[in-house]
Amino acid sequence: MEQQPETVFQTALGSITHGDSLDVMRTLKPGSVNLVMTSPPFGLVRKKDYGNADADKYVAWFRPFGKAVKRVLAKNGSFVIDIGGAWVKGQPTRSLYHYKLLIMLCEEVGFHLAQEFHWWNPSKLPTPAEWVTVRRIRVKDAVNPVWWLSKTPWPKASNRRVLQPYSPSMVHLLKNGYKAKKRPSGHDISDKFQTDNGAAIPPNLLAIANTDSNSYYQRYCKEHDLPIHPARYPADLPEFFIRMLTDADDFVLDPFAGSCITGEVCERLGRRWSCVELDRAYVDGSKGRFVRPIQAKPRVRMKRVTPTTQTTLALDDAPVGTNDNDYYKIPHPALMWNGTPEDELPADGGIKRKAAENPQSLPNGVVGR
C-alpha cells in the first residue's frame, strides 16, 4: 500500500511532511504558493544515499514535478532551482542534463527563465579528483547553476531587498568624482553613475561558502543517531531568493526539503512554509532545526557604506571588509602567467596516466583508466 503523506512537525508558520511531494502538491489549491525554493537530487553519475535519478533519465523523472509546481504557483510567483552539474561517466566532459531540464521546463511546461544565477562555493574541494588533481586536465568545478523561473514574465521581485555594500573602488569613485564619458564598449557612463544610493545592486554570482560543520542540526542528528543529510545548501542561498521574491506571510514550498533549511529560513523571516521530504530519517533529523527558538542572525554587518562614512562598524567593532567572512575573493586568472614555465600539453588529451600517477593514491571511489 502506498504511503500517504504525513505531517510530522508543525509550527505556527509551517510544517514538515514525510511523503512524496507530488502527492502533497495535489492537495494544494492552484495558485496558492508564492515561491517554490528547492535543491532537488542532482542527476549525478554515482548514486547517493539520499536518492537521485540518473543524468540521462533526469528530465523525464522531473517533468511531473515541474507540471505540479506550475499548477500550485501563484501567477506572479517564482520557482527557484539549485541544480548542480555532472560529468559524463568515465570521461572528462560535462553532462547537459541540467540544461535539458531548463529547456524542458520552459519550452514544454511553460515557465519563463527570469534569470540564471551561479552559486560559487569558495570552499569547494578540487573535484572531480581524477581529472583535476590526478591527470590535471580540468579545473575544479565550484559553481552550481541556479535557475530562477516564473509563471509570468513579470514575477514580483525587488533587488532592493538584497543590496550589497559598495566596493572600496566604488566608495572612492563616489568620494572623488567621475568624469562622465562613453566607454569604448559604447556604454554611456553619465553623471547619474555618481549618485550615492547607499548600497550596490548584487550580481547574479552568489559567493557563499558551504562550510557548516558543527551546527545545532548536526549535533541533534548525532545525539539522536540520525543521518545528517549530505547535500545541504547553506541558509544564505535560499534566504537571498526568499527575501527578493516574497513578502511576509507569503507561502514558500520546498518539495525536496532534505534537512528543511528552507523552512528554517522562512520561520526566521516570517514566511509561511511547507517542507516535503521522502526519506523519513532525514525528516526526523530536520526537526532538530526547530527544537530551539528560531532567532535572527547575530550579525548585521552592513547598513550603509558611503563616501562620508567610509566604513560601518560590525558588531565586533571591526570595519566592514576587514573580516574574511565579509568578502570572498578570487584571483585574477593571469596572476601567474608572466614567466611561468609551461609543461608540454599531453597530446592524447590526458587519456593515459603518467607513470607518477599512482592509482593507489587516488581518493576512495575514484577509478582511473
Structure notes:
The strands form two sheets. A nine-stranded mixed sheet has the order 1-2-11-10-3-4-6-5-9, with helices on both faces. α2 packs across α3. It has two domains: 255 residues, Vaccinia Virus protein VP39 (Rossmann fold, 3-Layer(aba) Sandwich); 64 residues, no CATH class. The C terminus is likely disordered. 22% of the residues lie in helices and 16% in strands. The radius of gyration is 23 Å and the shape is globular. β7 and β8 form a beta hairpin. It is built from nine helices and eleven strands. It is an alpha/beta fold and 369 residues long.
List the helices and strands and how they pair.
Layout: E1 6-10, E2 14-18, H1 21-26, E3 33-38, H2 58-72, E4 73-82, H3 97-109, E5 112-120, H4 129-134, E6 143-150, H5 168-176, E7 181-182, E8 188-189, E9 205-207, H6 216-223, H7 236-245, E10 251-254, H8 261-269, E11 272-277, H9 280-286
Parallel strand pairs: 2-11, 3-4, 3-10, 5-9, 10-11
Antiparallel strand pairs: 1-2, 4-6, 5-6, 7-8
Helix pairs in contact: 2-3, 7-8
